[in-house]
Specification:
single chain, mainly alpha, 5 helices, about 10% strand, elongated
Length: about 170
């Protein structure tokens, strides 16, 4: 096997292992914080954490930030399709720098919330921001940051045509 192929496979393995490590870290931290909240905050109580941030103990049957509440089948299908699409994309772009980080964040966040759904039929949310923002948890935050960082990673990896970008995509005379 040529050295370049061995190096490519090694890099691909490191990408998957790094993504798995981040996913396990996110899912573990998410489950730990949810456990602490369930065992220390009575549902309905609010505890001031930082200025403008309160800790609560609520349940969410939807996806991140309460979207699609009460639709277990739709939520499960949505999560499965999104994760499958992500993993297919990553498998096709293993050489993209930093692709492992958003992948791990997204998979870890999804796993953290899926564990709650399987265990209790709902997800524990506990971070409450002002202005009526719905409560969320570390998994939701990891998913949100994972999506944002995935967009950045993909955008930075995209080939740039400086001439076309400078002229608005039109040819100059």
């Amino acid at each position: 096997m040529p050295r370049t192929e061995i190096a490519r496979r090694g890099a691909a393995s490191r990408t998957w292992l790094s993504a798995a490590a981040v996913a396990l870290l996110v899912a573990g931290a998410d489950q730990l914080t949810k456990h602490l909240v369930r065992n220390s905050i009575v549902p309905g109580e609010e505890h001031r954490f930082l200025p403008g941030i309160e800790l609560v103990n609520t349940r969410n049957r939807g996806v991140a930030f309460g979207i699609l509440p009460g639709s277990d089948v739709a939520v499960t299908i949505l999560i499965a399709v999104a994760l499958l699409a992500l993993l297919v994309y990553v498998a096709r772009h293993l050489d993209t720098p930093w692709i492992w980080l958003p992948t791990g964040m997204l998979v870890g966040g999804a796993l953290g919330n899926v564990v709650d759904r399987l265990r209790a039929g709902s997800v524990t949310d506990f971070v409450k921001l002002p202005l009526g923002w719905p409560p969320f948890n570390l998994a939701d935050a990891a998913i949100t940051l994972g999506i944002l960082s995935l967009v950045i990673v993909i955008d930075r990896a995209r080939p740039r045509d400086g001439h076309a970008a400078d002229s608005g995509g039109e040819s100059s005379p």
